[in-house]
Amino acid sequence: FASTACVPCSPGFYSGGTASSCTAASPGFVVATSSSSSQTGCLAGTFSQGNASTVCPQCAPGFYSGARATACTAALPGFFVSSAGAPGPAPCLAGSFAAGRANTVCSTCLPGFYSSSAAPSCTAAAPGFVVRSAGSPAPLQCLAGEYSSGNASQKCTPCEVQSAFMPLCSHTQH
Question: What is the chain's Cα-based Rg?
Fold first, then answer.
């Protein structure tokens, strides 16, 4: 006569109450223990790529995922992920940047350069403007009677100084 004994499903597989076979956990889901009646979605910051997964590994630093992910996503330029298991990237703060993808840190803009938040690079201060210190979110305009002649200037020069750039100050002299 036919056997009526139930066989428990192995980890990675589950079955409903009256099922006659076990079903593999779908990508993005896991079944961690035997005899499970359902699969569980991977949490944000973790993933499972294939069928019949028993664990959801954490995304590596530089990568993140939403819930039920089948893969991790690299942080875009201007963003970073500093630790494993992150549910999303963070923007670089103003005065810093992150070039490329999968960044784990943001770099500080050097003197003469600035950036807004979530910047993939720093911008050089234009003539007439300066950035005196590292990590600046914006350039400062030289005061009347001062000038900065090139890009990425770190200081304004008084117009009284005899130089080839004296015409830049001619509008302020009387």
Answer: 29
